[in-house]
Design goal:
Strand 2 and strand 3 form a beta hairpin. The protein has seven helices and eight strands. The chain is α+β, with helices and mostly antiparallel strands. The two termini are 32 Å apart. Helix 1 packs antiparallel against helix 3 and helix 6 packs antiparallel against helix 7. Helices cover 32% and strands 20% of the residues.
Amino acid sequence: MPIAAGGAVPVPGPCRNSTMLEGFKRLFSGATPAPSSEWAGIAPWAESRQYAFRAVHNEGFVIDGRIGVTPWRMEWGPSQRPYITGPELRLRAEMGLPAELQVVLMNRVLQEAMEKSVFEQFVEGVQTRIDNQTPPEMRWLVMYPQLAGSHMPLLRDRFVAISSVKSWLQNWLEGPLTASLGGIHAAADVPVVLMIGRGRLMLRTAAPDAQIGTVQGWLRVFETAIREARRVVESGAPSDPLTAPSLWPPSALPGDERKK
């Protein structure tokens, strides 16, 4: 992708929060089913596992749980990302991972849509610096190269993965995490993002209905991601950088807002 003068990555300008979002909506909108009452069964399940369940009026629910010493939070409700229309399922865990570690794994349809949106804005001649209005997963997508498909043979047809630390990402995707992701039967055009940034592990995906099977399936993936992240840290795996974001001055990459 061409780089603008001064080293800034070309992304949509002042109209990015309309034109870009419309592009995502055209690709992912479809007919969004209204949330059903099926998620009412989530509360008994959560209580049976000794999770803390809380309904959010007119929005969804929040569940707090723990795997070992690591607490996690699950939220189902209105989307916080432009590429997910309708409700989304979010999971996050503060893991104290290295602050400089940035990792994103996303489905290919979403990755292609993001890159297409950035490119279309560039050829229209509207350019600006990446800022905190741009989701970090999109910023990192243009900052770091993708992991070669040969390093993720069981996932390469459905997912792409990038990281500031190639060796860490490769170790993380070895074994159980790849198997867990491979067992998810989401449609190819359903946005899925699993990411690490600021020491936090985060998963988000479109979920028009928070059915018990869907919730349990993504929680299994997330808990596997937690365990595998711990394993990589405890193994003392080398942390050589995949690439340095040297083209971006600090002023062009402000920190991501810490949203729930």
